[in-house]
Structures are given as structure tokens and as C-alpha cells.
Amino acid sequence: MSSEHEQQRSRLNGEYTKQPSEEPWADLELTLPHNRSPTGIVSFVECALVELTHEHVGAEFVSMSVAGVKRTQFIAVDDVGQRFQKRYFDKRLGWRETTVSREAVRDELVNRLSQSSSDRTNEMPNGDPDTFRVKPVHQF
């Protein structure tokens, strides 16, 4: 009888300690063009900023143009999410880094993700679309 009770208890404990198969930030990805509303874009960016503050993840915006691939990455540098490291890669210039405020990151991401396809004049014809995604910092 005690073994049956122990099996039941371990089964219950296992049910309560199961972790979700995906991380909460795993679905924070967006490809341009998209059909999100301006309010939806702001909400999406705010969700991404919360994850950057609370998890060991960063955000990356990758754009393709006739000049090549450009990457902009953002990683929180403090525990309260008010300062971010911004890394920018351009084939001609290489990597550049700076520290920016949360407001600057928010504004830049909202502006970039709000662009319509007609606003994106430097994109490659039939090239890969611009993408934004949140991913673990070690993958940068």
C-alpha cells in the first residue's frame, strides 16, 4: 500500500513540476511585411522588451538590402531593463556597439516593425524578408 501511495505522489509531483516545452519568448518572431496593427506592433515590442529584461535572451533585427545583410541586436545590460547594448553589423563597416535607453530600443523596434513594404526601398528584389526574433544570447 505504501508503494502505491508513493507512486501516486511521485506521479502528482511530476505533473506539477513539468516545464513547458517552449520558452515564453520562443514565439517572438516577426517577418516583414506582416498584417499587424500599429497597436499590435507596440504590444509585440513591449513583450519582447519584457523577455529581454527577465531572460538571458536578446532581440535581433536582420534586414537584407543591395548592400548586404545588416544586423541590429539588443541585449539588456541591467536588471531593470532600462539600458541595452545595441550591436550593429554592416558588411562595409563591421560591428559597432553602443549603450542605449529602453525608450530608444522601443522606438527603433516599433519604427522598423511598422514599415510597410513600400517603405523598404533598399530591399533585395525576391530576396529574404526582413526578420525580427528573440533568441538566446549565446546564439548571437
From TrEMBL:
Region (Disordered): 1-23, 111-140
Top-level division of the source organism's lineage: Archaea
Stretches assigned to the DUF8030 domain: 45-139
Protein name stated in the entry: DUF8030 domain-containing protein
Species of provenance: Halobellus rarus
